[in-house]
Structure formats: structure tokens, C-alpha cells
Design goal:
The complex is a heterodimer of chains A (308) and B (514). Chain A is built from 13 helices and no strands. Chain A has 308 residues and is an all-alpha fold. In chain A, α5 runs antiparallel to α10, α10 packs antiparallel against α12 and α11 runs antiparallel to α12. The longest helix of chain A has 38 residues. By secondary structure, chain B is of the alpha+beta class. Chain B is 30% helix and 21% strand. Chain B is built from 16 helices and 20 strands. In chain B, strands 1, 8, 9, 10, 11, 12, 13, 14, 15, 16, 17 and 18 form a twelve-stranded mixed sheet that branches. A four-stranded antiparallel sheet of chain B has the order 4-5-7-6, with helices on one face. In chain B, a hairpin with a 5-residue loop joins β2 and β3. At the A-B interface, α2, α3, α5, α7 and α11 of A face α1, α7 and α13 of B.
Chain lengths: 308, 514
């Protein structure tokens, strides 16, 4: 592999710039969106009480000073004290992170496990009843809002069929519905893309050649087609991982899943600046790391990428 | 009471979507249970366990079960002995509390007057980081402890409501020795009180586990463990109840209540909210500076229709500024009238020229806020008022309260933890209060005098006269006094409180045994 070091260095630089931009945007947007102090105190609290709490939270300083302090702390992975939880914001986010990882990985695994075979089968059996049914279902999965899918699953699977718990995080049973809800969108889009990528390859000359050579159909699909269709599939899969983080906000709220998505939304409502900043920062780091690995996998899959 | 958690009370859209979906499972008709564990689901997680660090309803539902106060407010509104067995006023400003003997904290330490003094002093300590109750007991000057079983609370001025104040948040009694030895952070992480349940563990945003205090002076509660879960979305919260995963849920909106009632193994139990839902008025802004216009706005609201259609009957029409169940509520007053033609006549008399009247509403901060605002807007348009609804976000509302910058009317849910007009109405509408947009010399004089009088007869007269002035000037347009509903399994026998505190004691809770 040519020039891995310069590649890494440029990626790291870009990652650092991206993180700086993300944290600055969050800092500015949160400050523009309102003051946390009125939410913390009774409406009839005296002015002196407001001043006291504002000073306690460091909000009495000017914006540039607050920003400088914020950046300085971020360099040391210190996001300040959570206003709501009264402990280190990073600690709070780290406490919530494992639940989101668990849910995200389960959703992702479920999405891949279901979507890849469906996509391949649909492409190979193009225009068959199976193809049409699964693609219609995928369209629904891609268009229905996560919130709706979640509540529908709770009502049908959990309440009417009495199969799985409605919410909470206790045992693998409670993971199934949220993972399905969160994975639905990714599942649908990966299935659809897999189908079109495989179709594309199936039309290629080398497939016709393979068939002409008398290679069995199974081998044609598994060996020749899948390997060549992998690049777009890996791309969309990597991107879907990012949307999983976004979908976690809704899914975790519907299923009372104690992860960072739910933490983020609550912290926004509470104007808990430090926690919001830390959550977004960590999400951005995750996103960048995942994209980095997607790029690396490209290189492994496709020699043409390595060359450029 | 401005708790942020009220916002998740009602999500009409979600409720509608869920209600439209198909039927319920055939539930087992088990009316009795062998359960030793009570599972409660509320709309949000707790923020703090230290009772001095929070006033939000999600937190007080827990802290009032870990801690006791000197006095206890029962669901019927009566103030009864708790850690104090009796109290009396000595002179004008000294309240003498006799403490219950033999009470121990969960760690075995005895509860004495030193703990009472420590608790009240700490609640007032503005240097306590994160203190959110420092304004509750500000009438207190100092606390004396003549002996371990007696606490004397001196107030700066006569304070008729002190025993009631000590019965709600800010008044929980915490253990001096433990708090001083472990420090505030450890106390918040592992609280020790003297209440009917003691702390076991807390997994953030998942569940809190408490266990019965076997030595509780009021008798051991009828469960071994109390588990409190946070289920933020309303439809899943109701689903968890219907499926039997939880025994008790909070904040059930009216349309979901029908589902809970329709299910064979669950019931709805409600308490009339200890306050009112009102449209507060910026009376400084024309045309709302004209009392005739405000009278017309009140007359144009068909409150019966709002109660019946939007609340499915789960509320009552207010008669004035005092909530039913509060001190000095006048049961002889008729409910606020609906009379569209009279409303038109008063608008004409006022010389109303079609000036814009804006209702600024949040969505879901208070139950039914936006649907009610839209219904009222339509009713006002019917009598020729150029009304408009604008939607704002919670924090914008909080900011507008600070800046007193509302354009016209906005929702408020005034309530008093003391069940008294002073805390409910005068705290907000009085001079310098958060809703000080209208002044009236006689109203102000009466309100001030009632605040510092220890003569209940005098206070009753004052609030009667103030109500007459209120009904002429409408600094608030009261709309409804709703029920706050809970969903229960049929085997749970529990009487809810009107102030959202979810106190579970032997006198108000038991499992129905099979």
C-alpha cells in the first residue's frame, strides 16, 4: 500500500478540523437557543438567585471567554459539569454510551443479516414475486418514520402478541424491538442498494464470460458478483451507521433505552450545554472513525482506490 | 411550580396515533396479586436525590418516599402530623414543634431537633451548590433547639402558613451527622432519610430501586421493593401498564385514560389538580388593558365544551382565582359563565376595533395547551375577536417569563404547594411577582394584608373581596381545573395526591391480595 502515513496524516488533520467545527457550531447554537437558568429556578425566584446560579454555571462571563474556556477544556477531554446531573458531563455521556453501542451494533447486525440476503435474492430473481414483495416492504421501511415503526411494533408484537417487553433494558428480549426499529431504515436502504449493485454486476461482461465457461450459478453469484458489488454496499453501509446514531434519538426515547440519543434530547430540553456538547462531540468522533474504517476497507476491496 | 418535567404530560399527537391502532390483548382478569414489588413508571428520570437540589415533579415523587417532613399534607388537603406530633404558635412569630420520639434514620441514627435545624438551615443556604429550594422557607429567621425533642422556628414576620410550608419540598428532614460526614455528593448519590422506603440503587434513565423501611414509625409499607422506571413517551408507558410490566403509571392524558379504563385489568385514578390552568394576561397591552375586553374574552369561552371534548370530562370549570380544594375556596360562586351575545355586547361597549389578541402557547408543556389554545382562538373569533395563536418553545417561555415580554395571553398552571391562595395567586400576581402586569390599589392592599395575617377569618374576607375584583379585571382568564390521572393495575389500591408527589404510605397504599 503506497503512502499509508501521508494518508493517515491528512485524515487526522481533516478529523481535527471537523471536530473543531462541530464543537464550535454546537457551542454557538446552544447559546443562541436560550438560557438554562430560568428552567432551573422557580419563576418567582429573586434576581439575586438568578445571578448566583448563573455565576455557579459560569454563564456570567462573556461569550468569547466562555468559548475560550470551553475549547481549552475540550483539548483535555473535559466538557465541564453537567447542569442537570451535577457531575462531569463526560462521565455522564460515558455512562450512557454502552447502551447505545449495544443497540447500534444489534441494529446494524440485524440490518446486514436481513438486508444482504434479501438484496441478493431479489437481484438474482429479478421481477419475481419475492423480489416485488421484499422491495415493496423495503420501500415502506425506508419511508415510515422511526417513531411510528417503534410504536407499531410495541402495540403489535409486545401488546397484542404478548411476545417481547414494551420497553426498558433488561435481557436480550428487550433489545429486539428497539434494534428492529432502529435498523429498519438501514435494513431497507441496504437491501435496495444491494439489489441494484448486484444487478449492475450481473449485467457485466465478465459474468457472461463466467457463465459461458460453465461456472455454476451459485459460484457466479457468490464469487464473481458479490466481490464486485461490495464497494457501493460498503459505502452505503458505512453511511447508514451514521444515520443509526441519529435514529437512536427517537428509538431510545420510544423504548426508554438509556443511551446517548435519549440523553442528547433530554439535555437539549434541559439546556444542559456541557452534556449536549459532549454528546455531539463524541458522536462526531464516532462518525469520523467509522468513515475512516470505511475508507480503509475500500482500499482492501478495490485495488483501483489504493492506486489513487 | 415550574418544573420542567411537566412538559411530557401530554403528547396529543402520539396519543392519537396510538389510539387509532387496533385492540388490546385479552388480559388475565387477575384482580388480586402476590406481588411484593411495586413498579412505577413516570415520564422522566430523576435529576437529584438530595431533596434540596430539586423541585421537579419526577424528583419529589421519589424524595417524599425516602424523606419525611415535620408535617404531612394528605390527599384530602388536610395537614397532619408527621415527624412533628404537634405544633403551636407562641406569640406572633415562634412556632414550636414537638418531635415524634424514637424515630430513626435509615442508617440507625436517631432523628432529633438538631437534624431539623440542620435541614432548615441547609435549605436556606445559598452557598450550597445546586440548591433549588432556597426561596421556600425565606420567612424563617432562625431555628432553636431547646431540647432534642423540640424545635422552635422563629419567623421574621407572622407566617400563618409555616407548618404547611414545612410539609412540602424544602421541608424534608435530612440527617445532620450523615450529611456532614459523607459530604453533599455522596449524600446525593446514596441518600439516607427517615421515610417509609430506603435507597438501594439508581441506574440513570433506567430505574431506581428502593426497599421498605421495616422500622417506619407509620407502619411498614405493603411491599418489599419499590422500582421506579423512566418511560418518557406516553404511548409506550401506557402499553407497559396494559401489558402488566408496570403496576402504576403517571401522567395519563384523557384519551389514553379511556384505553386504560377499557382494559379489564387496569383502572384510572385521578386527583383534581391542586391549581388551575389559566391564560395569564399581559394587561398592559391594548386592548387587554381594558377590563371590558377581558370580561368579553372570558364570557366567550365555552369551558363546558373544553372539559367535555378535549378532556373527556376529566376536569371542572373554575369559578374564579382560587382552585377547588385550596384554602378559602368559595363553593357558593358559580362556575365562570359562557355567554357569546353578552361577550359581543361588552366588546362593543369597550369600543373594540379588531386589535390583534395573541395567545402564545407551548406544545405539551402543560397538558392540552395547544389544542385548548386553538379551541379558544376559534371561540373568540366567533364573537369577533381578532385572535391568533403563536407556538413557542419551553425555554422561550421561560425567558419571556423572566423578561415579562408576552404579547398577549399565555398558559400558566398556578398551584400552591401550601394549598393556599397566597402561594397560588398572590405569589404570581402580586407586585413584583412573575406575572405582575396589572395593579389595583385595593387588590394589592388586601393581598399584602392577607399574606401576613394569622387570622383566618380576616384572610377569608380579604380573598372574597379580591375575587370580586379579579372577576371584574381578569388578570388571568381561568380555563379549567383538570384531573391528574394515573393508571393502575386493579390490584393496586392507592389514593393519588393533588400535588404530584406520589407519596406511598401505609394509609394510602396496599396491594389487593388474591
Amino acid at each position: 500500500m503506497r503512502g499509508l502515513l501521508p494518508f493517515l496524516a491528512s485524515r487526522l488533520l481533516r478529523a481535527a478540523i471537523a471536530l473543531w467545527l462541530v464543537s464550535t457550531v454546537v457551542f454557538v447554537v446552544m447559546r443562541l437557543s436560550g438560557d438554562p437558568v430560568p428552567l432551573l429556578l422557580p419563576s418567582d425566584a429573586p434576581q439575586s438567585e438568578f445571578a448566583r446560579v448563573r455565576a455557579e454555571l459560569g454563564l456570567d462571563r462573556s461569550l468569547p471567554v466562555q468559548y475560550a474556556v470551553f475549547l481549552g477544556h475540550v483539548m483535555h477531554a473535559d466538557f465541564g459539569q453537567s447542569i442537570h446531573f451535577r457531575q462531569s458531563a463526560a462521565r455522564v455521556v460515558l455512562d450512557y454510551l454502552p447502551a447505545t453501542f449495544e443497540l447500534g451494533l444489534a441494529a446494524f447486525a440485524l440490518a446486514l443479516l436481513v438486508a444482504l440476503p434479501i438484496g441478493v435474492v431479489s437481484a438474482v430473481k429479478r421481477n419475481s414475486a419475492v423480489d416485488q414483495a421484499t422491495m415493496a416492504l423495503a420501500l415502506v421501511g425506508q419511508s415510515a418514520p422511526t417513531f411510528f415503526i417503534g410504536i407499531l411494533l410495541i402495540l403489535i408484537v409486545s401488546l397484542n402478541l404478548g411476545l417481547l417487553p414494551t420497553s426498558g433494558r433488561e435481557g436480550w428480549q428487550s433489545l429486539v424491538l428497539p434494534a428492529l426499529t432502529l435498523g429498519a431504515f438501514a435494513m431497507a436502504s441496504i437491501a435496495r442498494l444491494t439489489r441494484s449493485a448486484v444487478l449492475e454486476v450481473l449485467r457485466a461482461d465478465y459474468i457472461r464470460t463466467a457463465r459461458a465457461k460453465g461456472v455454476t450459478e451459485v459460484l457466479v453469484v457468490v464469487k464473481h458478483t458479490l466481490k464486485n458489488a461490495a464497494v457501493p454496499i460498503v459505502t452505503i453501509t458505512g453511511l447508514q451507521f451514521g444515520t443509526l446514531l441519529g435514529g437512536a434519538v427517537v428509538t431510545e426515547t420510544v423504548f426508554a433505552w438509556p443511551g446517548i440519543g435519549r440523553l442528547a434530547i433530554q439535555s437539549i430540553y434541559n439546556r444542559d450545554y456541557p452534556v449536549v456538547q459532549c454528546t455531539v462531540f463524541i458522536s462526531a468522533v464516532l462518525f469520523i472513525v467509522i468513515n475512516f474504517f470505511v475508507d480503509l476497507i475500500y482500499g482492501l476491496l478495490d485495488p483501483r482506490v489504493r492506486a489513487s | 411550580m415550574t418544573d420542567m418535567t411537566r412538559r411530557d404530560v401530554l403528547k396529543i399527537a402520539a396519543a392519537g396515533a396510538a389510539a387509532a391502532l387496533p385492540g388490546l390483548p385479552p388480559s388475565a382478569l387477575a384482580q388480586g396479586t402476590q406481588k411484593r414489588e411495586l413498579v412505577v413508571a413516570q415520564g422522566g428520570d430523576i435529576a437529584a436525590l438530595d431533596p434540596h437540589l430539586s423541585t421537579s415533579s419526577n424528583d419529589i415523587r421519589i424524595s417524599f418516599n425516602i424523606f419525611d417532613n415535620l408535617t404531612s399534607r394528605r390527599p384530602d388537603g388536610k395537614l397532619l402530623p408527621s415527624l412533628a406530633t404537634e405544633w403551636k404558635l407562641q406569640g406572633q412569630t415562634a412556632w414550636v414543634f414537638k418531635l415524634r420520639s424514637g424515630v430513626k434514620f435509615h442508617n440507625g441514627d436517631p432523628l432529633t431537633s438538631a437534624d431539623v435545624k440542620f435541614s432548615i438551615d441547609r435549605s436556606l443556604d445559598t452557598n450550597l451548590k445546586g440548591n433549588r429550594v432556597s426561596t421556600v422557607l425565606t420567612t424563617v429567621e432562625r431555628v432553636e433547639t431547646p431540647d432534642p425533642g423540640t424545635a422552635v422556628v422563629h419567623t421574621k414576620k407572622p407566617d400563618p402558613l409555616l407548618p404547611a410550608r414545612l410539609g412540602f419540598y424544602g421541608g424534608q428532614i435530612i440527617p445532620k451527622k450523615y450529611v456532614e460526614s459523607v459530604g453533599p455528593d455522596a449524600f446525593n448519590a446514596k441518600p439516607v432519610g427517615s421515610g417509609p422506603t430506603r435507597f438501594v440503587s439508581w441506574t440513570k434513565d433506567d430505574k431506581l430501586v428502593l426497599e421498605a423501611n421495616p422500622d417506619y414509625w407509620g407502619g411498614r409499607v405493603d411491599f418489599d421493593r419499590l422500582i421506579v422506571r423512566a418511560l418518557p413517551e406516553m404511548a409506550p408507558r401506557v402499553a407497559a401498564l396494559l401489558k402488566g410490566e408496570v403496576d402504576l403509571i403517571t401522567q395519563v392524558p384523557p384519551d389514553q385514560g379511556e384505553r386504560v379504563k377499557g382494559n379489564p385489568s387496569t383502572v384510572v385514578s385521578g386527583a383534581l389538580y391542586g391549581g388551575l390552568y389559566v391564560l395569564a394576561v399581559n394587561s398592559k397591552r391594548p386592548p387587554l388593558d381594558n377590563p371590558l375586553v377581558k370580561q368579553a374574552l372570558s364570557l366567550a369561552i365555552d369551558r363546558d365544551a373544553i372539559v367535555k371534548e378535549l378532556w373527556r370530562g376529566r376536569g371542572v370549570v373554575p369559578s374564579g382565582m382560587i382552585a377547588k380544594g385550596d384554602n378559602h375556596f368559595d363553593a357558593s360562586l358559580p362556575p365562570l359563565a359562557f355567554n357569546a351575545s353578552e361577550a359581543k355586547a361588552r366588546l362593543k361597549k369597550a369600543g373594540y376595533k379588531g386589535e390583534e389578541v395573541v395567545i402564545e402557547t407551548t406544545v405539551g408543556y402543560m397538558a392540552g395547551d395547544k389544542p385548548m389554545a386553538e379551541a379558544i382562538q376559534a371561540m373568540w373569533r366567533d364573537v369577533g375577536v381578532n385572535s391568533k395563536v403563536e407556538v413557542m418553545e419551553y425555554s422561550v417561555r421561560a425567558q419571556k417569563i423572566r423578561e415579562k415580554s408576552f404579547k398577549g395571553l399565555w398558559w400558566s398552571d398556578p398551584t400552591s404547594t401550601l394549598r393556599d391562595p397566597d402561594g397560588m395567586m398572590w405569589r404570581l400576581l402580586g407586585p413584583g411577582g412573575p406575572q405582575d402586569y396589572w395593579r389595583h390599589a385595593e387588590f394589592d392592599e388586601l393581598g399584602n394584608a392577607a399574606r401576613f395575617s394569622v387570622d383566618e377569618k380576616f384572610r377569608a374576607d380579604a380573598y372574597k373581596k379580591m375575587t370580586q375584583l379579579f372577576l371584574e379585571h381578569f388578570p388571568w382568564v381561568p380555563v379549567i381545573q383538570p384531573y391528574e390521572d394515573y393508571g393502575l393495575q386493579k390490584y393496586v389500591e392507592w389514593t393519588p395526591d393533588p400535588l404530584q408527589q406520589l407519596e406511598i404510605r401505609r394509609f394510602n397504599f396496599k396491594f389487593r391480595r388474591a
